[in-house]
Amino acid sequence: MTAPDKLSEAEASDRLAFLAAEIARHNALYHTDDTPEISDADYDALMRENNAIEAGFPELVREDSPSKVVGAAPAGNLTKVAHAQRMYSLDNAFADEDVTEFVDRVRRYLKLAEDEVVALTAEPKIDGLSCSLRYEQGVLVLAATRGDGSVGEDVTANVRTIDDIPDRLTGAAPAVFEIRGEVYMAKDDFAALNARLLDEAEDPAKARQFANPRNAAAGSLRQKDPGVTASRPLRFLAHGWGEASDLPADTQKGVMDAIAAWGLPVSDDLVRVEGAAPALAHYRGIEARRADLPFDIDGVVYKVDRLDWQKRLGFVAKAPRWAIAHKFPAEKAQTTLEAIDIQVGRTGKLTPVGRLVPVTVGGVVVSNVTLHNADEIARLGVRPGDRIVVQRAGDVIPQVVENLTRDEELPAFIYPDHCPVCGSEAVREEGEVDIRCTGGLICAAQRFERLRHFVSRGALDIAGLGDKTIEEFLELGWIKEPADIFRLAAHRDELLTREGWKEKSVENLLAAIEAKRAPDAARLLFGLGIRHVGAVTARDMLKRYTTLPAIRALGADIIALREATPQALAEEDGRYRNRLDKAVAEVIGVENVGAAVGHALADFFHEPHNVEAWDDLLREVSPPDFIVETQESAVSGKTVVFTGSLETMSRDEAKAQAEALGAKSAGSVSKKTDLVVAGPGAGSKLKQAEALGIRVISEAEWAQIVSDAG
Q1: Does residue 234 lie within any of the structural domains?
Q2: Is the pLDDT of residue 401 over 50?
């Protein structure tokens, strides 16, 4: 991976598009499906890379940037409910220096004196499912999951079965008060639940087993049947609040004390400290007792104690400026690598998977670990038989962090040059770390994964077509490509004779398929699984091109461009590639969609089998033209630059106001700039704006725009 400061603008745009799609996929797996694929550490690494690129290229920040997104869209099996106040996530700290910088950043933002104490609350960050409890006149009227932060799922009936959550608050509470916290499952209760599920199963081999307490809590709370939730040992711990008609105190600690007095559990380890040093001391104390706590935690959360300061600090796109989560280091254990197998993914990526002598890490038995790619295997020098160190960061997918033996006398693992599933050639493209099967839809492994992706929630979202059903229909030869799904009605009578299928389930499946005959064009394009074309990129492209035939025409144009742009005899490979990439990006003409997407489209449509599958699908479905409704406001969609000294607010506060009004805040003036807010001492940026004829206003005029927006 190229360092952010070494990327060209086109490369940065391509990488941001990839990261937006990849992080959105992992958000959905974690928040919606409760089946995370990567560790918290790997997820945080993706987020840090995204944020670093955005910092270097602020003009490339996407509308759906992961830095602006909280959680994932709610699933479809529960009623959706809008939050009265957004449920934010938290920014992370990974080192003591990050916590010290957080306190310093608060001081700078508020323009506090160096000797003024910044008091914080510090409490364990419990690993559960975020939930908001709305009380009106002291009575519980609504409980909702976080979802994507704006819209969650109504779980009121299920929450009423949790003993920790009272139907009525004790004492005098405000007329409206939303209490927010985590629904979780204690470690002992989690072990007992898995044991009970195993004991109750008719076939122990097929018994439902939860991977960890967080997944168990999420799966238990988000049930259609409250009776199932009632049978699960769920707990609740409050850590904050949302909408409130009144507040019982003017500090974070004071309000949390009131919530505890009203009858909601609050952490015994919630304390008030003055400054970074005592906060870090509290962190060390909790970390030392982590293994002895009855529930899983993954860090400590610090919040500015004064509520008036919290209000001034406000929020960035996805998190408050007045809080931060200090994460614990990953847990580790030693074991032996027994074998390395190759798995083939939806895009043909050949991923090596290490098979381990089972080892317990952080309370969970680990027997498999991803080795990512050939470069990672070479870096670690791992061979079957080596002793390795495995870590689990965030209690999800483990990773190898060290090879203890590096025994070169052991047989080395030979990375295959052909797909182990279909036998097609496996190649590594220029500039890529991954090796991919070239078989496309003729590869059975890719066929399953691509069909699975096609019907997934983010794509066509066809209910009833789960993994086992897709596998069954593939084995029967009923489906090979997406279009075949829409011809399953021809197998109705035969399906009724198969074990596990009843008339109602067959009719429900066929009805769900028929309901997708006019799908959203962006979802359909995303569902085809074209490399680099994630959900956000698909929407961005269809905002510009409107129809799928226009997308196909674009692919043909890029194929023609590549054929008409040969490499000059003495031209270096890198220079030629940059020249071609620039031309491809210009043909696409979509902001934040770079050459990598264009090349992927051209590669897709250059393969005759893909063209046949595309044409076949469009004979079965008729997606309407893609039209996006926009809301106009004074600065919505405009790019604003602040320059000079601001007298009534800090620069960060001004940028936050712009983003809250739907504008993009940039750090430099260019032809794309729409508005410059100039304070005293404005220099080169003001001169540049005047030279370009860009509108310039004062800080007072900006304040009026903010006021007019309400």
Answers
A1: yes
A2: yes
Any domain includes 631:
no
The size of the chain, in residues, is 710
pTM, whole model, 2 decimals?
Answer: 0.52
Instruction: Note whether 295 and 388 are same-domain residues.
Output: no
Query: Is 182 annotated as a binding-site member?
Result: yes
State whether residue 340 is helix, strand or coil: strand
Chain Cα centroid distance, residue 415: 31
> Is residue 22 part of an annotated ligand binding site?
no
Full domain range(s) for residue 271: 96-327
Residue 153 pairs in a beta bridge with 80
Question: How far is the CA of 227 from the CAs of 161, 232, 236, 470, in angstroms?
Answer: 8, 9, 18, 30
CB atoms inside a 10 Å sphere around CB 550: 15
Residue 422, annotated as binding a ligand = yes
Provide the token pair at 485: 């799904």
Query: What is the spatial distance between Cα 679 and Cα 215, in angstroms, rounded to a whole number?
Result: 51
Residue with the two structure tokens 């990512």? 372
How many structural domains does the chain have? 5
Q: Beta-carbon neighbour count of residue 349 at 10 Å?
A: 18
CA atoms of 312 and 22, how far apart (whole Å): 34
Does the annotation list 44 as a binding residue? yes
Instruction: Examine the fold and report which residue of 327, 348, 369 is the final residue of a domain before the chain moves on.
Output: 327
- Whether the per-residue pLDDT at 8 is higher than 80: the answer is no
What's the rounded Cα separation, in Å, for the pair 667 and 656? 13
The sign of the torsion formed by the CA atoms of 18, 24, 30, 34 equals negative
- Is 303 among the annotated ligand-binding positions? yes
What is d(CA 22, CA 27) in angstroms, rounded to the nearest whole number? 9
List all residues 6 or more positions away from 526 whose beta carbon is below 8 Å from its beta carbon. 458, 459, 533, 534, 535, 538
Name the residue among 629, 532, 636 with its Cα closest to residue 590. Answer: 532
Q: How far apart are CA 465 and CA 479, in angstroms?
A: 12
Spatial distance between the Cα atoms of 679 and 418, rounded to a whole number of angstroms: 63
Distances in Å between the alpha carbon of 529 and those of 16, 440, 441, 468, 600?
18, 11, 11, 20, 11
Query: Pairing relation of β-strands 235-244 and 435-437?
Result: unpaired
Residue 54 has what DSSP assignment?
H
d(CA 389, CA 333): 6
Residues 552 and 589 in one domain: yes
Alpha helices in 415-547 (DSSP H): 444-454, 467-476, 482-485, 492-496, 503-514, 521-527, 535-545
Distances (CA, A) of 6 to 59, 151, 186, 668: 17, 38, 46, 20
Q: What percent of the chain has pLDDT over 90?
A: 48
pLDDT in tens, 106-140: 999 999 988 899 999 999 999 899 999 999 999 99
Alpha-carbon distance of 438 to 431, in angstroms, equals: 17
| Residues involved in catalysis | 125
645 is in an annotated binding site: no
Q: Answer yes or no: is 419 a known binding residue.
A: yes
Using one digit for the tens of pLDDT, what is the confidence trace for 682-704? 878 888 888 889 999 988 888 88
